[in-house]
Amino acid sequence: MSDTQLRDDMALERTRLANERTALAYIRTALALFAAAAALLHFYPDSAALHLGVAALLIGGVVVSGFGLYRYVTVSRRLRQP
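That's the DUF202 domain-containing protein sequence above. Prediction below.
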């Protein structure tokens, strides 16, 4: 294997690992939003005004996780193309 080919292969592997780290960051952010919603419900169960905030946090978590999954899949497909 030539030196140039080895560098190209290692660069591709670094890019794949960066894509995985980015996807995990999206998942971590979505889980933090879900945890914040659960904490609000736990500490303020009778507050009807906060239920809108809880719904916003839950929707935000779903949107963030969906976008992260979409981005991960599209970048992975582009990396697999010759």
